Structure formats: C-alpha cells, structure tokens
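pasting for the record
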Amino acid sequence: MRNQRSFSLEFKRRLVEELMSGESRPAQLCRRYNITSSVLYHWKKQYSRGKFNNEPTEEGALQDRIEKLERLVGKLTLENEFLKKGLQHSISQSQRNGKSSPLSNTSSGISAGGAD
C-alpha cells in the first residue's frame, strides 16, 4: 500500500497558479511532480474557492453559495416531508379513535395549493 503524501498550501497554490498562467500544461505538471490530473484539478477547484490563503475567484464564491443553498433546500425539503407525514399520521390516528380531525375546526383546512 502506498503512503499518502501531503503537500503544503504554498506548493499547491504555486502549481495551480502555474497551471492557470499557461506556463505549464496539466500533463507537464503531473509528470514533473508525480501527481494525478484529478488531484491537480481538485486543487484548482479549491484554489478558486480561496482555500489556499488566496482570494476566491468570483466563480468559486458563487459555486460555494450555490452548494450552501442546495444543502439548505435539501434540509428544508426533508423537514417539510417529515411534517407532512406527521400531520397525516395525526389525522389518521384521530380518525381511527373516532375523534374529529384536528383541522375540522379551521375554516379552510389544508390546501393542496392553487386557488380554491
């Protein structure tokens, strides 16, 4: 089994900047430093997000924001589904027990969306 190498932030930043400047091609950098292209492009992505003590690029900052918003949407979707199932369970329990629906006292109940 190979030992995992570690590289300093400065080294990673220097390689990515060399790549982005056009000084060296990706294949040249990979051969010279014995790294895979996937590692190099992973570092480039991290660089664009400001992970190497550099200013993030506009694209990287926007990508971070998109990912945060996608995680929030996923979390809210899960919470919404959980609450819907809980309400359905509560309604079915009250109907089995012969009690009126917890929403029967409200004027409109649950709307499925759209105009009534």
